[in-house]
């Protein structure tokens, strides 16, 4: 059953050095506050997984938290590159970063396989691409019924998955709505899970198209109003486009980024 914890306590308990950590959220409900708390707590050697790493992963990589990234697309959406990500890959700054690249479909199916207790997933999505030649975790497989050549990818079972949602009740049941991406699958595939929410309510009111995560599949819930900013949370606040644009300047330069990092962690220059 889910425990109601502060964000600081939840990250302290659930995220350990060397873990595989998935912070999922597609377009909105991105767990930015949780990612920044991981930075504050100085975690190291993490394998970060995410379908679409954006600026919070740029921050984690720039802070030296990550040793590997498993992903299917990376960028500052609507703006351009992730400069801390690029610096780590090209120049090993602040530490070397190994990358494992998949397609969106491949990543989604890896979470589904993990959530289903299966060792791998099978799909057609890599046909005609050169990703199988670049990524060891993409393998050809022959259908035993039709002889069709398909592609297999291994299940992805993070040590901890972190997602953001709009609401949870006091028993730890979670409800999210809007574009929900692979949050449900990432939580079900993980050994441990943390859901940050905009608010804790007495009763969850059913909403059309909502996803409900029952408390018995969630390890911890933390109430973090604004926890997805600068992304948006449907029904609560809009996307802060100016913040994404501003990040380009911060992330582009090591010295400017280091000042941002010191401000975040409370380190005096």
TrEMBL record:
Name this protein carries in UniProt: CoA-transferase
Domain of life of the organism encoding this protein: Bacteria
EC number: 2.8.3.-
Annotated transmembrane regions: none
Lineage: Bacteria, Bacillati, Actinomycetota, Actinomycetes, Pseudonocardiales
InterPro entries: CoA_trans_fam_I, NagB/RpiA_transferase-like
GO molecular function, one term: transferase activity
Family to which this protein belongs: Belongs to the 3-oxoacid CoA-transferase subunit B family.
Keywords, sorted A to Z: Transferase
